Amino acid sequence: MASTDIEIPQTETPPEVDGQVSENAAESTFAEVDDSERAVPAIEFRDVHLSFDDKKVLEGLSFKVLTGETKIILGGSGCGKSTTIKLVLGLLKPDSGQILVDGEDITHHDENQMMKVRAKIGMIFQEGALFDSLSVYDNVAFRLHEQGVAEEEVEQEVRRMLHFVNLEDAIDKMPIELSGGMRRRVGIARALVGDPKIVMFDEPTAGLDPPTARTICELAMKLRDLEDVSSIFVTHEMNNLDYLSSEYAVVNEAGEVIFEKEGEKLCLINTKVLMMKEGQVIFSGTDETLRKSEDQYIQEFLAPARTLKGTDEGEGMRDESKGG
């Protein structure tokens, strides 16, 4: 990839001095990216085709996920968005085209080769996919126990991951004792063991109430902005798009993680949108451009969210008074 294609995850608005960019701003904002590893996409699809019998699932799918970037894949049911994750994990093989992970062509990898690739990918499922017979501790520790890691190291890593998802107090609980949102967060903690630099989110907020869904999105933002993790975030929910594309995570002076709105201080360029319909990409770009699209399907997809947002703003006080 040419150097002009390399994107810096977060770009501060450069102050001007007499109409010119200050020296400090030039050094911080426009400094040349000299890390060659960041020039290699974390994930890349090249003209990927896939069919099940006579049904075309993916038709010429091409996209890249850059290092530290979140790619939000939107679309209705059956459009092929979750299939992309299965292809990255090697659970499905394409009929044609190429799939690369960290520059490695995995298209024709066998199971043994894919095991090495999956070791550097965290996978977060819709329902958390926890083992019901294991405690939270043992669920998060599962991969480490399988690898024969010393228990002292296992406990340290489990506690670190549960701290990241704010569930330290649930370490001894069983999955049946957890709410749906807590189960998802335990699933995220388990996926993050080993500090994978690529994470897949497959409809992680499906069926959750808005506040809990917001919590899941905050975890995704922390991974993106504080851990430089590359991710695919598959969803059909517009609230997720709103959160991920308009806010970012930072650590304040007290050492606390806070979330700030995109605005004058910072412009997010590490989150992009891919919209699919019937196995094809119909949009690729920023959320701002998506909302301005005149494509009828896109407008219809966005319309319910716009209507709901307007209703929420107009009736928020009334809903709160009902206590529900």
Question: What percentage of amino acids are in beta strands?
Answer: 25-35%
Q: Give the helix level as a range of percent.
A: 25-40%
Number of strands: 16
Order of strands in the sheet with most strands: 9-10-11-6-15-16
CATH architecture label name: 3-Layer(aba) Sandwich
What is the name of the CATH class? Alpha Beta
Class by SSE composition? alpha/beta
How much is the average pLDDT?
83
Element pattern in H and E: EEEHEEEHEEHEHHHHEHEHEEEEEHH
What does this structure look like?
The chain is α/β, with parallel strands linked by helices. It has a single domain, classed as P-loop containing nucleotide triphosphate hydrolases (Rossmann fold). Helix content is 37%, strand content 25%. It has eleven helices and 16 strands. The strands form five sheets. A six-stranded mixed β-sheet has the order 9-10-11-6-15-16, with helices on both faces. Helix 6 crosses helix 7 and helix 8 packs parallel to helix 9. The longest helix has 27 residues. The protein is globular and about 50 Å long. 31% of the residues are buried. The N terminus and C terminus are likely disordered.
